[in-house]
Write a structure and sequence with these properties.
This protein is of the alpha/beta class and 544 residues long. It has 16 helices and 17 strands. It has 2 domains: 406 residues, Glycosidases (TIM Barrel); 105 residues, Immunoglobulin-like, CATH 2.60.40.
Length: 544
Amino acid sequence: MRILAFIASLLMSAMPLAAQEYKVVVSEADEPMMKGRFEPSWQSLEQYQVPDWFRNVKFGIWAHWGPQCVEGSGDWMARSMYIEGSREYNHHVRHYGHPSEVGFKDIIPLWKAEKWNPDSLMAFYKKIGAQYFFALGNHHDNMDLWDSKYQPWNSVNMGPKRDILDEWARAARKHGLRFGVSLHADHAWTFYEPSQRHDLKGPKKGVPYDGKLTKADGKGKWWEGYDPQDLYAQNHPLSQDSWDNGAIHRQWAWGGGANLPTEEFCTNFYNRTLDVINRYNPDLLYFDVTGVPFYPFSDAGLKIAAHFYNHNMATHGGRLEAVMFGKILTDEQKKCLVWDVERGAPNEILERPWQSCSCIGGWHYNTSIYEGNGYKSAAYVVKLLVDIVSKNGNLLLSVPLRADGTFDEKEEKILNEFGAWMAVNSEAIYDTRPWTVFGEGPVAESDIPLNAQGFNEGSYSKAGADEIRFTSKAGVLYAIALGWPEDGKIVIKSLAEGGRVAPAKVESVELLGYGKVAFSRTAAGLEAVLPVKLNDIAPVLKIK
């Protein structure tokens, strides 16, 4: 994950190409795109309709887990370990060795997943309220976490020596969760560019890191027979300003001087993605990209989307049950994909269903967040969920696992607290739709812009008891205060007698988990009295 700092570069990806002309056209020789209703064009993909099941489930868990969790130094470790002087570089050198001698390739065998039990984890995710689950298929580190046909650097050949995706998929379906896969390896091309560097000072000054090693260099090494370039993909010139560590963000949409990937690289990612679709039949696909992978210079992403939809229809008796996500979408592209907002939310009800992806801590496991008590609280997660659902969205929450396949006791405590709240109040979440207005309160009434693809969730975390969000279902209105009022009273201005959006009559008010409560209704609003404090998170009123 990253903050895309330069909007101008991103807008490049939103511009449709005349007559669908691409610099790089991927080969379908190994993995033909399935023919069907959808063609690889934005115009054809506009036929897409979001399935009702996605609108109903509201909450998912994401296991953002792979070999980058070994060192416990957080997200993008496989890149940052090659950035001299960075926290990740210093940690790597201190504990594992210098990147000229011990590169990321050498971390992979240390990822054993020795305590990983996908069945018990999935049972727990289901217990706390998750209705869908996302597995990491590959990250920017370019290692495939399945028995990959097109990437020798995979979790069956090395590391855990297990088909991670297969085991996740079986567990998810056993416990009744929709199954999704996130694929991020399309950006390995620029992500790994620091591995072509060398130290600028110190005893290793000028000694190249391992990013340019080839298969021939592996004789006598543990990786003999494997080509590091299949992993690092660095047999290419550096992008413009590549030594500027921030350049990758303004080049994320393949503008701003990014060195464009070759047909071979794009086709390889296309083949790997279709392999996942054809083999594991995911319900959802996520890409950490602007629009679709490799757009606008290649047709790879649009071919993936068309294949995914057509394949899904073929496996569901002609019904389209698939959900594919994209970031920073134009209004036209939002008809083709589900919009994903990273760590944030728009401050309005959206007509089309959307998703916010966030994380309880960092994306990959980070021991410093654990040690510094930096996790989101259960109350924080509930605030995000309620706000997002009130605006027609879903929350996908990443809970990073340690390298051994377990989450820590602090994460477990937070998730149990969240699950206890959901056990009582989930009827105000699942299967609901937005009400006339999404909410009221200081935050609801503020202008809170998105930063690039999101990154405004901190504003919503500050909401308290004076902040109320609404959901509705089957003629019932739910009002959720984002905190417990100190005086035990909730005043809902939107339900003022004779108000513009208020129902003509309110017959009863129920506090979920307790029962009916006393209420009164005036021109100032509906006031409900809460006789007990049921939890430390948020009260939910059921209004008829």
